[in-house]
Amino acid sequence: MASLCLYNGKVYNKIYNFKYNNNDFTICKEDSKYIYFKHDIVNDKDVYTPYDRWLKVFEINDENKDKIDNFIDYLNNKNIKNEKQIKSLVDKIIYGKKRKVRILNKYFILLLISISSLIFGGVTLFNWYTEGQDVHHLMNNVLKNTKIEENIAFTATEIPEVTGEAAENHKYGEDYWNYMKTTMISVDFDELKRINPETKGWIYVNNTNVNYPFVQGGDNEFYLTHSYDKSYNVAGWLFADYKSNFDNFLKNTVIYGHGRVDQVMFGSLEKVLDESWYTNKENQIIKLSTPEKNTLWQIVSIYTIPSESYYLTHTFENDESYQKFIDTMLSRSIYDFGIKVTTKDRLLTLSTCLDYNGNRIVIQAKLIKEQKR
C-alpha cells in the first residue's frame, strides 16, 4: 500500500489497512495522533473519508463503531512502535481474537513447559542414576581393598561388671550381657586414609545397606555434594558433624547422610521405621570402628521429626540440661526399647532425610562397649 493518503488537501502518513463489516479502513497518523478513514476507490482513485463524517453523510448507524473508536483511543494512549503491534491490536479489539490468542498462547506455553519438564526430568533422573552407580563402584573398590575383621572375641574380664541398683533396675537392659559378647568390626584404615585423609571411622547398621566409611570435614556442607574421594556427587557421603570428637566421644556424636531412594548412603535407614526391623534385637546394635577404638552402640530411640537443631546438640552446660535432652529423646521414640540412659552415657545420633518436606529420620544409641586398638 502507498505510504501516504490525501484528504481535503492534507497529506497523512498511512500506517495500516484493515477490512471490517465489508468496509475498508485506513489507519493514518497526523503528527503524534492516530486517526482513521473509510477507504474507497472511485474512478480508479483512492478516496478517504473520515469515518465520523461518512456515518453522518450516509446515515449509517454502525453499532460496532465503538470498537474502532476504542481502538483509536488505545493507539493514542499507548506507545505503539510498529505495524505488527497495530495488527495485534486490530485482531484483539476489532475482531475479538483476544480469547483465542490467549488460549493458543496458554496451550503453547503448557506444551513448552511439559517438554522442558520431561527433558529436565530425564536429565535429572540420568544424573541421579549415574551418581548412585558411582557410589556403588567406589564402595566396591573400597571393600575390595579394605581389611575388615568382624569376629573379635572378648574374654569375660573385658566385660564390665554391673552390680547393685544398676543391675536390679536393668539400667543396661535385660539383653546387656548378650550384647556385650557381640562381635565388633575392626577396620584397617591405612588404605582408606590414602583415599581420603578425612576418614574418621566405619559404621555398620544391621539389615540395612549402611556399611560405609565416614568422614569429617571442616564444615557440614562439603560432603553434602561430594563423594568419599572428594569428587562432586549430589549423593554426597556419610559425614560426622564437624564438632564431633572421635578421640574422646562427646555427650552426643552426630553422623549425617542423604536419604536417597536408591538406598545408598542413609537411604536404607527408612527400614528402621518398620516394626519388624526395630523389634528384632539383632538390629538394635550399631557397630562403629575408628582408628583409635572399636565400639558398640545400643539403640535407645528411633523417631521422625521436622528439621530442627535440638537433637543435634553435642555438649551441654550441665547434667540437668543433658538429662532433659535424654528424656526428650526417649519420649519421642516410636518404640520403647526398655533401656535407661543416664548423664554418664555417651550417645550416637544418625540423621537423614525422610522426605522432601524437611522431615528427618533420627536413630539414637548409647555407647555400651569400646575397646582401644
Structural account:
With 373 residues, the protein is an alpha+beta fold. The chain has two domains: 4-96, no CATH class; 141-372, Beta Barrel (Sortase, Chain: A). It is 31% helix and 27% strand. It is built from nine helices and 15 strands. It has helices at residues 51-58, 65-77, 83-94, 98-145, 164-168, 176-180, 190-195, 275-278, 319-332; strands spanning 4-7, 10-20, 23-30, 33-42, 45-50, 148-149, 186-187, 199-205, 211-215, 239-240, 252-256, 285-289, 293-306, 347-353, 359-372. It has an eight-stranded mixed sheet with strand order 9-8-12-13-15-14-11-10. The protein has a five-stranded antiparallel sheet with strand order 1-2-3-4-5. Strands 6-7 form a two-stranded antiparallel sheet. A hairpin with a 2-residue loop joins strand 2 (10-20) and strand 3 (23-30). The longest helix has 48 residues, at 98-145. The protein is rod-shaped.
Write the layout of secondary structure elements.
Blueprint: E1 4-7, E2 10-20, E3 23-30, E4 33-42, E5 45-50, H1 51-58, H2 65-77, H3 83-94, H4 98-145, E6 148-149, H5 164-168, H6 176-180, E7 186-187, H7 190-195, E8 199-205, E9 211-215, E10 239-240, E11 252-256, H8 275-278, E12 285-289, E13 293-306, H9 319-332, E14 347-353, E15 359-372
Parallel strand pairs: 11-14
Antiparallel strand pairs: 1-2, 2-3, 3-4, 4-5, 6-7, 8-9, 8-12, 10-11, 12-13, 13-15, 14-15
Helix pairs in contact: 2-3
